[in-house]
Amino acid sequence: PKMYGCILIYLVSGLIEHTEASMFNCIPRKTVNYKNGNIRTFTKEGISNFSTLLLSEDSDILFVGAREAIFALDLKNISKEISHEYWTVSKEMQEECKNKGKTKDTECRNYIRSLHEVDDTKFYVCGTNAFQPTCDFMIVKDGQIKLEGMPEDGKGKCPYEPTQRYTSIMVVDGQLYSATQYNFLGSEPIILRSLGKNLRTEFKATWLNEPSFVSMDVVRESEDNLDGDDDKIYVFFTETAIEFDFYEKLLIPRIARICKDDLGGQRTLQKKWTSFLKATLICSVPELSFQFNIVQDVFVLKTGNWKDTIFYGVFTPQWGKLDISAVCAFSMTTIQEIFSKGYYKGPVTVGQSHVKWVMYSGVVPTPRPGACINNNARRLQYNTSLDLPDKTLQFVKDHPLMNEPVPSINHQPVLVKRGSNYTRVVVDRVTGLDKKIYDVMFIGTDKGYLHKAINFDGEMFIIEEVQLFNSPEPVESLQLSSAKGQVYVGSPSQVVQVPVSVCSRYADCMDCVLARDPYCAWDQTQKHCSAVNRSANSENWIQSVKHGDPSKCPQTGNHEAEKRTVIPGSNVRLKCVPMSKLAVTKWIVNGSILQPINSKYLFYDNGMIIFNVSVADVGLYICESVE
Ligand SMILES: *[C@@H]1O[C@H](CO)[C@@H](O)[C@H](O)[C@H]1NC(C)=O
Ligand SMILES: *[C@@H]1O[C@H](CO)[C@@H](O)[C@H](O)[C@H]1NC(C)=O
Ligand SMILES: *[C@@H]1O[C@H](CO)[C@@H](O)[C@H](O)[C@H]1NC(C)=O
Ligand SMILES: *[C@@H]1O[C@H](CO)[C@@H](O)[C@H](O)[C@H]1NC(C)=O
Ligand SMILES: *[C@@H]1O[C@H](CO)[C@@H](O)[C@H](O)[C@H]1NC(C)=O
Ligand SMILES: *[C@@H]1O[C@H](CO)[C@@H](O)[C@H](O)[C@H]1NC(C)=O
Ligand SMILES: *[C@@H]1O[C@H](CO)[C@@H](O)[C@H](O)[C@H]1NC(C)=O
Questions:
Q1: Looking at 135-144, 521-530, 554-563, which range is the least confident one?
Q2: How many angstroms is it from 140 CA to the middle of ligand 1?
Q3: pLDDT tens digits, residue range 336-366?
Q4: What is each CA distance from 154 to 77, 178, 424, in whole angstroms?
Q5: What are phi and psi of 468, to 5 degrees?
Q6: How many whole angstroms from 617 Cα to the centroid of ligand 7?
Q7: Continuous H helices in 419-544
Q8: Mind telling me which SMART domains this protein's record contains (predicted)?
Q9: Nearest C-alpha to atom 3 of ligand 5 is from which residue?
Q10: Which of 48, 295, 388, 403 could form a disulfide with 343 if both were Cys (CB 3.0 to 4.6 A apart)?
């Protein structure tokens, strides 16, 4: 009764130099349309671009940054607005922005791009502010939000350009880490720490080369760390490669990291990161000769121990011919290995002026360049990065790129999808009734769908796709609340809320079990598909996430025969709607399978048509659906 969700078929042609993915036939088991999606929405007259979401599970509030507005919404039902605050651009500023050659009614507005919680009542907000990035503190009391009205320069903390990709986080000690462009022209990319011990990247193409920043997060590596290592901030971006000779601009996905306690150098790298290192991410299908070289988003799945952290990234290929997206996962241990033990890449001059980047095989100074201050360094009297020797600092300044790329787990994607452009991802870790752990991916598309997918030891499976909006628009931000069991989505026109699962949508035991949805199981007592309840007695529950095996389900599915009287010469439609898009249906009449050999029959998704019926067509027609 089981069919693999995804089949990879390759078309190899002797004439074309490379193997091309002709088909990635990964279809969602179900498509849930907008009406049936159990979706709650938030829209506001005159307000658009709901691109920034901040979950506050303690206060049950979803904060939303939009164009010239900030909202506090009820996390349980986002249709309920608790409060709002508007932050508009003055006429003068709009004129000034227009005079610099920007579009008055779109670009010269204030797009709220950054929302961070400083403490329970204090937040930090930044907006593009008509190409003059500006930040302010925001006070939250009983759900009521109010800007302090003491704006400060947001240069480096927030982009100038509203359409530009950007990322930032606030770490518990109140320091803001941001990755954006530092100037009006957008030619000075920067990873900046502000609101405390300010530090930034060098303006050098070897550090950052036309990057598009997508995400960053902190990993608490100092916890239970025998080496006395520091917490690290990981930044994900796509940049133009400098290490390859290529006649076209080759984009490359990167992971960079910096140490939280970095204070910069004393002489070399003064007020700059002494711990900035980056590596290439590899997301590719081994059988294909191309790589997914644009990273669109990364979700950091944090579990009990920081060593088990997994980075889930959404990737697309640069050359647009292939309509394919992929999700790749990367393990903390591999990343750590590469940064803390791997070789560096270095430039060598070939011929007159040509520079090639190769593995650096010379002597590497100690302490290790780019490493955080750990017990080893402290033993050598290097208590902070300010104590580090110039040799180490000069080396890391010139060699920020690691030689080894970071391979994805199992050297293949966890999901490959043809015909969809994936934009954002969040991942929930769920325990099934079999006590096994399943990482459920929720992936947004540029057409407004949310795919829910799992990878079972290499087998890719899309449980369902849910249509999030009435008309297509891209998913621009995703937030997950595991506690509430909700996914929150920001888009150009609205915010929507969708449950991680709606078990009651599964019609019967077969449907419930074949869905392989770890959130749901068939309750034999109540005779319906319900959310797995860990406190209840699970003996009466049927679930088979790993194998999708419904053999424990009571035998059903034989529907009562229905009698149809028809007029000779007319066309008759017989309905048969399979519960799953992975099901294959066939029609049996008088005990033999009907073949669509002649124009007598037309088979379609939801049934078939018999044309020009006559007495010879009388019989018992059975539709059999096999998944
Ligand atoms: C959510 O809030 C809206 C607006 O207040 C209300 O109309 C709707 O009934 C609420 N839905 C639920 C399920 O509580
Ligand atoms: C803002 O939203 C509108 C549609 O509502 C869209 O056309 C525009 O591109 C968005 N602008 C940005 C900067 O995201
Ligand atoms: C580093 O810290 C130790 C112990 O606190 C101290 O004795 C030593 O002088 C410090 N070294 C430097 C270079 O500051
Ligand atoms: C994906 O995006 C590309 C480039 O923006 C576009 O050409 C293509 O039609 C999109 N594909 C789908 C399925 O939306
Ligand atoms: C789970 O089961 C327990 C015991 O049967 C019951 O009291 C509780 O209400 C259930 N919880 C949910 C969320 O259904
Ligand atoms: C319908 O079937 C009858 C015989 O069963 C045949 O005579 C007639 O030509 C058919 N009509 C069409 C439109 O095919
Ligand atoms: C089914 O069997 C009956 C009785 O043998 C026969 O009259 C009829 O034509 C058959 N129908 C078809 C579609 O073969």
A1: 554-563
A2: 23
A3: 999 999 999 998 888 777 788 899 999 999 9
A4: 32, 10, 26
A5: -90, -30
A6: 6
A7: 509-514
A8: PSI, Sema
A9: 536
A10: 403
DSSP 394: H
E strand segments, 302-421: 310-316, 324-331, 345-350, 354-359, 406-407, 415-418
Asked if residue 551 has pLDDT above 80, the reply is yes
48 lines ligand 2 (CB under 6 A): yes
For ligand 3, atom 11, name the residue with the nearest CA.
381
Domains, the chain, in order of start with CATH, read 5-18+556-626 (2.60.40.10), 201-419 (2.130.10.10)
pTM: 0.91
pLDDT digits (tens, 9 = 90+) for 41-76: 999 999 999 999 999 998 999 999 999 999 999 999
Cβ of 570 closer than 6 Å to ligand 6, yes or no, is no
Residue in 323, 417, 423, 443 to alter for ligand 4 test, most ligand atoms within 8 A of Cβ: 323
Q: Cα separation of 387 and 262, whole Å?
A: 11
| CA distance readout (Å), 219 to 167, 231, 404, 620 | 16, 6, 21, 64
Tokens found for residue 616 = 């010879």
CA of 432 to the centre of ligand 5 (A): 17
Torsion of CA 31, 36, 40, 42, to 10 degrees: 70
